[in-house]
Amino acid sequence: MTSAVVFAYHNVGVRCLSVLLAHGIDVKLVVTHEDAAGENIWFGSVRALAQEHGIPVVTPADPHDEATMVLLRAAQPDFLFSFYYRSMLKPAILGIPRRGGYNMHGSLLPKYRGRVPINWAVLHGETESGATLHEMVEKPDAGRIVDQMPVPILPDDTAQDVFAKVLVAAEIVLHRALPALIDGSAVLRPMNLQQGSYFGGRKAEDGRIDWSRPAAAIHNLVRAVTHPYPGAFSDLRDGRLVIWRTLPTAERGAPGRPSLFAVDGHLVVRCADGVIMKLLAAELNGVPLGADLFRVRFGGAELPLTA
Q1: What is the reported pTM?
Q2: pLDDT tens-digit profile of 119-152?
Q3: Domain range spanning residue 244?
Q4: What is the chain's percent helix, strand, coil content, to nearest 5?
Q5: Domain stop point among 199, 231, 256
């Protein structure tokens, strides 16, 4: 029986571990994370799935600590798989499996190597993303590609919408790639790193809106960081405005200073490029803000917006 050790977290970890089990892989050990205090845990538990199947689970702060290394060596796995595990794995671990280590990445590599690839793709207005199974090497997201599958990004898709599509793509990619990996017939193709770029992680502060940007860029930011992420925001004189959902319209005025106002029952922004954008969901200091409340708080005047 083919054996593996699995490093996994998040929904991709849950679904891809499920695929391994469905293919009869003998999973010797699962390495996952403790849920971070204060994080919005909106995804499934790899640990719970592993425990349901009687698979040993460890949650080391550092997967390279001696106790974990002892367990990994003792497992003597054929393969190592990493599914949305958040820590980089060094050569000391990658050298343990007899038949190599493979990672599932949430982009069409070599594009969007690195952290939070789906959020970055939405932020940049991409029209597709996908899932890529690739060989793990010392350099992150740089090993040969086993298989990949694209998914569309629609103009109003949020990062969570796209993640749901990538989740299914990841399951399909792993399901169809496993037989060839197991029997040794898989043909891997080298990755041309010059055709893509590497991106780092994002912080809540990165959601601050630069109102000098065009409406399309602001719309992309909002949908890239909306729920379950912290949201796009702007600090007004009356507090913090958090925008959860937007819709650019065909209406266009003269370019100029951005402003927030209410019209025809809608809360809207006139963006710097003149495009009128509806705010479909917004909060001011944690209180839902619509056209009626805006008029009560600010009257009929337009509220200037600054970066």
Answers
A1: 0.94
A2: 999 999 999 999 999 999 999 999 999 999 999 9
A3: 206-304
A4: 30, 30, 40
A5: 199
